[in-house]
Amino acid sequence: MNDKLYIPNNFIEDVKSYLPSHLAIDDFIEYCKRPLRRSVRVNTLKMSVNDFKQSCLERGWTIAAIPWCEEGFWLERTAEEEQTLPIGNTDLHLSGCIYVQEASSMLPPMALREALSGNPKVVLDVAAAPGSKTTQLAALMDNQGLLIANEFSSSRVKVLAANLKRMGVVNTALSHFDGAIFGDYMSECFDEILLDAPCSGEGTVRKDEHALKNWSIESNIDIAAVQKQLIVSAFHALKPGGHLVYSTCTLTPIENQQVCQYLLDSFPGSVEIVSLHTLFEGAEKATTDEGYLHVWPQIFDSEGFFIAKFKKLERVENSNQKTKKGNFPFSPAPKKEKQFFDNLISNQFGLKSYSGNLYVRDKEVWLFPHEATELLEKIKYQRIGILVGTTHKNGIRLEHELATTFGHLATKNTYALSQSQAIEYFKGQDVTLEENTKNKGEVILTLCGAPIGLGKWQGHKIKNSLPRDLVQNGNLISWG
Ligand code: SAM
Description:
Layout: H1 9-18, H2 25-33, E1 39-42, H3 49-59, E2 62-65, E3 72-76, H4 79-84, H5 91-94, E4 98-100, H6 107-110, H7 113-116, E5 122-125, H8 132-140, E6 146-150, H9 154-166, E7 172-175, H10 182-185, E8 190-196, H11 217-237, E9 238-248, H12 257-266, E10 271-273, E11 293-295, H13 297-300, E12 305-312, E13 331-332, H14 335-349, E14 357-361, E15 364-368, E16 383-384, E17 386-392, E18 395-398, H15 400-406, E19 414-416, H16 419-426, E20 431-432, E21 442-447, E22 450-458, E23 461-464
C-alpha cells in the first residue's frame, strides 16, 4: 500500500461526479494506492505461449492468465530475484520473447484482433511510442501486411525503434509527425487504425505516483482539444468498412466519452460504435451504456483505461487533402544485387524466401513490406521495414535485423547460446566455444529458442556482431 500517494481532493470530487453508481469511491482510492501487479505479454513472433509457460515453470516464476489476452500473464518472481536481476535483464526479455506491458494496456489491440486476421492489412498506430501496442499489433498481424507506427516525440521514436528491433518486427514503417496530418496526407488509406491518444494519465497512478501532481480540469480540456483533432484525422485516414480504436489511460469523460461523441457528431451516419461488451468474459463489468470499455482500477485490479471501437460505414470527402513534396531517397534493388543477396542468405542460412521487396539507398539494402509500395510517396518515413545488408566492394555484409526477424527460418549456421555465452554476447564480447569449429562465415545466434543476432564463426570463438547501441551492462540473465 502506498499511503503517501498524493491524490488531489479536487480530482476525487471530479471522479465522484462520473463514477458509475455500482462502484464506490473508497474502493477506487484504495486500489490507486495498491502496487500494480507486474504483467508481461508473450511475443508470439519469437516464442509460443506454451513454451513461455514451460519456461516459467523451469525458473520458478508464478504466472496467472490475463482474461482478455491469450498472450498476457501476470507474473511474480521471488523477492531475491526481483532485487538481483531486473526483468529487463532476463534472457526472456533480452531475446524479445516477452514485453513488459500493463494488463489493461493489452486491451486496445485486442479490440482489433478479429479485424487483423485473414488477408494482410494496412494498419496505422497514430501515437505509438514506446511501442507496447505496436509490437502487440505486429504479432497479431503475424508480421504480415504493413503497420505504420507514428510518434510525435523524437526521443520516443528512438525507443520505439529499439523495441521493434528487440521484438523482431519486420512489417512496420516509422514516421515522426503530429498524428493530425494523416487524414489529409493519407486519406482513406488504412484498413484498421489504433489511436492510443496522448492523455492526462489519470489511470496510471499505481505505476507513477506523480501522475496526478499537476492535475486540473483545465488541462483535461486542453488535452481533449488535441484528442479531438487526432480522432477526426484518424477517421479521415480510415477506409470505409475499417475500424478505429480510440484508447486512453485516463478516466475523465472529457478525454473519453466526450471525444468519442465529438467523432460521432462530426460524421453523422458515417460512423457507428462497435460495442466491446463481449470482447472477453467479464467485459460487461466495465462496459458503458454506449458500448465503450471504461476500466476502473478496482474492476480487474489493473491500471485505469478507456477503449472505444468505431466502424466507418461509408466514404467521407476530405476537401483538405495534401500531397507530400520532395524526393523518395530509395530505389528498388537492381536485379543483380537482389540475386546476390538471395544467394547469400540461401547458401549461408538455407533461407529460401522472405516476404517484402528489396530497396537500396547508397550502400544500404532494405527490406520493405510489400504493402508499403503504394504508400511510399505519401509521407516521409523515419524508416521502412528493416536494414538487411550493407554493400561493400566484395559483396554484401548481412545486418543484425536480418537475423532477428528471419533467423527462425534458418536451416543451417545457427547456434544456441548457453546462459554464460549469452552474457558474453550481450556485453559485446566474443562468444567462447568449447571446441574449435571449422564452420565459416556468419552464424545466427539464438537464446530461449529465439534468434537474437549475428556472429561470425572464428575457430574457438564466435566473433560478436551485436550493434554497439544494443550492448548491455550490469547483471544479465543469471542471478544465482
Ligand atoms: N501506444 C503507446 C504504447 O502502447 O506503447 C503509448 C502511447 S502514449 C499513450 C501517447 C503517445 O503520443 C506519446 O508517446 C506521445 O509522445 C505521443 N504524442 C503526443 N502528441 C502527439 C501527436 N500530436 N501526434 C502523435 N503522437 C503524439
